[in-house]
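thread: overnight batch results

M.L. [08:02]
morning all. the overnight job finished for the chain we discussed friday. pasting input first so we're all looking at the same thing
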Amino acid sequence: MAAKSSIEWTESTWNPLTGCTKISPGCKNCYAERMAARLKAMGQPNYRNGFRLTLHPHVLGLPLQWKKPQMVFVNSMSDLFHEDVPSGFIQSTFDVMRRASWHVFQILTKRSERLLHESPTLDWPPNVWMGVSVETAKYTFRIDHLRSTGAKVKFISFEPLLGPINGVDLSGVHWAIVGGESGPHSRPVSKDWIIGLRDQCVGAGVPFFFKQWGGTQKKLSGRLLDGRTWDELPHSTPEAVLGRA
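M.L. [08:03]
and the structure it wrote out:
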């Protein structure tokens, strides 16, 4: 069975990699690092190395066994484009996603340089959605890298949002997720930062998904923004791919 996910914008997770290293401010309070420590303590064999990058070739074929079409977050516990992941392993992951064409796969990376480098070698199937994380204005260059890839559906995760991001070039972007930071020591998010990104997305016609306020604000306000939830998906929705149309 697929591992069901509590992440609001997906349904399941698939982790042929576990473990990572921190490269930018959004990594500071990494939830995957906390989870990996917990799973190691529980004796889960895939986390015997804790949060040290570990490949799990035996996990690669799992999506081919999941008959029910679903949206699958790839490597929620790692980064497929980590510098220490062999190119051949990335290719193998893409091969499985291509063959498991009844699912939609969502990949998220902070390592946009590696993504850009590998992109020409990848056969990008339409059921793979590629995203980059952008936590502050300093990292909007990741969007430029994403835009230059061959991904059919491109998205941005502004989470954890750690500052205002104005004047974003959203051309060629099909979806935006915005959220504050959750978990211990979560850093505050300003409503103005979120509203600013929402208004930019609405103006550019980019579907907007508000994930959470984060920290104590999530408990107080849930996922409401200006009195409503924002659960928009790419205009090329997964319904056709997943057979729900």
